[in-house]
Fold:
Amino acid sequence: MSRRTITRRDALKTGAGAAGLLGLAGCSGGGGGSGGDTVNAAFIYQAEVGDVGWDRAHEDARQAVTEEFDWLETEFSEAVAPGDVQQVIEQYISSGMDAIFGTTFGYMDPIHSLAPDYSDTVFEHCSGFKTRENMGRYYGRLYQARYLCGVAAGLLTESNQIGYVAAFPIPELVRQINAFVQGARTVNPDVTADVRWTNAWVDPPAVTQAVNALTNNGADVINNHQTTTAATQTAAENEAWAFTYTTSMAEAGGDWYGNSAVFNWEEFYAPTLQAINNDEWESDAYWEGLDAGVVGLGDWGPQVPDDVISEVESYEEELVNGDRTVWQDTQFAGESDEFLFGEMGSYVEGINGEVPSS
Structure:
């Protein structure tokens, strides 16, 4: 298995890994930092890092923190299947890695299994629910940003029908669908929504087919949960407002682009790595939102009216200040974080049908 080290300039230009299973790209850090011992951290991605989407958001954050701290050196592996991640992790550890960030749900069990054998290594896992003494977990309350996109959708729709192309019927996705629709119905109680499930994270043909079906049935706003621009592009081709997630996909949406609920993972990675460098890291379950800056909205599309943007901003301020919650006036009002994170399995009012069995 080959291993390649590239300069920071090359990494920032390409964001690409090297050949082989490990696809490693070394990066030495730039300005700032505590001046302590070097921290070596690895980031592992399930898909190849493209221009948009889930892995792109993590990679942008890796580059940002590598540039920020002069004591930090990072490497990354892309296109690592869950069945291969144990081998990748063990190779990283043998090379002296101090911290490993597993950025997809499918890595949870392998990391949880390996962590006790490598007690000197810090493990952080994204989106899962298991921890150990040397394994933390982290995620962002993206549903808050989805809610804000929903507020915009409720103001923009003319047909009062919105569509959502979803991947898998798991609590994380149900939570985000519900938040989007609840946001729309908060400002427009006449809104109803239809959901099409693809049972895939990346399947452009299935996404295109689903969006076409939703718009043919009258939806003039589309949101999605796919690491592809297919939904955004197809919505725009059908003259439906396009909303998306993880990173901006404005170019694909053109004049019909609304916005994106985005992750700003550097808001988690920077303090976590600083804690490791200060020997102050402790395993925890991080789940912060708009007020922490780890989630938010991207740039608005060019044709979104100013009054819509202003209305969304007022709702965002209320959420951040605690004057409003996403789940007020729903059956989920007052539910615990444990329920919201791992147990939500039904739709809010206004969504047609029921959540399929996972």
Q: What stands out?
A: The radius of gyration is 20 Å.
